[in-house]
Amino acid sequence: METARIHRVGTITTGIVFIAFGVMFILHLFVNAISYDVIFKLWPLILVGLGVEVLISNLRPDNLVYDKGAIVLMFILAFFAMGMAGADLMFQYLVNGQLF
Asked: Is residue 1 situated within a structural domain?
């Protein structure tokens, strides 16, 4: 019995995004080599990655299924990470209870 391979669109992009954003946040925390501004400006790459994966998947004759859970999880974690980074950025500029 041969089973057809099903490609779940979104899983490759989710993995790449988690690795890329994780590395960027680690670089900011430990080396301070990359600023939060750069990380915030790169979020559209998530959409570009998903679009590329959808286009490539549609060119192949394999069965494909959109992995909606992975895509939703990717956006939730990306916005959560940006929110936490924004809070950290706010606390860096908080002096004596006032923002300047």
From this structure: no
Looking at residue 25, what is its pLDDT? 84
Spatial separation of the C-alpha atoms in residues 17 and 23, rounded to whole Å: 10
Q: How far is CA 84 from the centre of its chain?
A: 14
Give the pLDDT score at 45: 80
Both tokens of 40, joined, read 């915030």
pLDDT at 99 over 80: no
68: Cβ contacts below 8 Å, ≥ 6 apart: 10
Helix boundaries (H) for 60-92: 68-92
Domain region containing 49 = 6-99
Number of domains making up the chain: 1
Token output for 21: 């954003």
Reply yes or no on whether the pLDDT at 35 is more than 60. Answer: yes
CA distances from 14 to 26, 74, 85 (A): 18, 6, 20
